[in-house]
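Supplementary Text 2. Reproducibility record for the structural model of the 309-residue chain.

All settings were left at their defaults, and a single model was retained for analysis rather than an ensemble. We include the record here because the model underlies the residue-level annotations in Supplementary Table 4.
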Amino acid sequence: MNREELLAAIDEKYAAIGQDANVHLSGLLHAEPMKYWDFIQLDALLGLQTQRTTLPDEMVFLMYHQINELLFKMILWEMGQVSHTEDIKPEKFVMHLSRISRYFDMLSSSFTVMGDGMEYEQYMKFRDTLTPASGFQSAQYRKIEIASTELINLIDYRFRKTIDRNTPYEHAFEHMYWQVAGKNYETGEKSKLLTNFEDKYKVELIEFMKEYNLVNLWTKFKSLPKNYQEDKDLINAMRHYDHTINITWVINHLNAAKKYLGDAAATGGSDWQKYMHPRYQRRIFFPELWSTEELENWGVSNLDGCDKI
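Retained model, structure tokens:
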């Protein structure tokens, strides 16, 4: 675009919103040029790390989880572009799924940063100051799950037959698989881990469930024309996404936790091994894209590498 075309485009842009382009150009004349540290808000970003102890390795733990949350935000950003695009084509669907999978590939391979990057003695001291907080309480991760699949696939496996599309959202929320991390189903009593989380995010998450009820990735895929649903690249991207999040990332997270905790309870008090391991809760976003054998072996080591057809 040459200078004249550029100025004409600027005039057109501001005229469309009832603004005088000359005023904005005049402002640009006096504006400071953009700097890297201003663009990424570096001072604010680096000021978000506040330790609760004097133990140096707490900073590793803190920053690692902040990085995770930034990646979760990137993932949700990509998911929204799939879910809210009308008549989406396979190529665009695959593009965003591939981006998300790369982010989760980073997350999956990053556990050595935490697993090998902290002294055991330091971790076992500063972790007590975090009680009853837990990574379980990441609302962004819950949103990723909700935006990925139909709610029935996130319901505790024991209760799925009692829940259908007519079930109230509140009832579905109370039977999500992760409730087992802090709920006694016999008494209904909830741990402080869970009540703190729900006080902060329950209303927001239920609204998110409503928003993604018909536009989650799985429903979106099933609404595509038949020939799109048979696109091999799209199917492989869906399977890789499902496998990476629900097996690779989870198992790596589990193994990193085992290195420090052994059989001890998590800071939130949850039975974290049964809550996390895919063979117990069988979190599968896209069940119809897997064979009977693959479904039966979900979370078992011989499924590794089976994310493509």
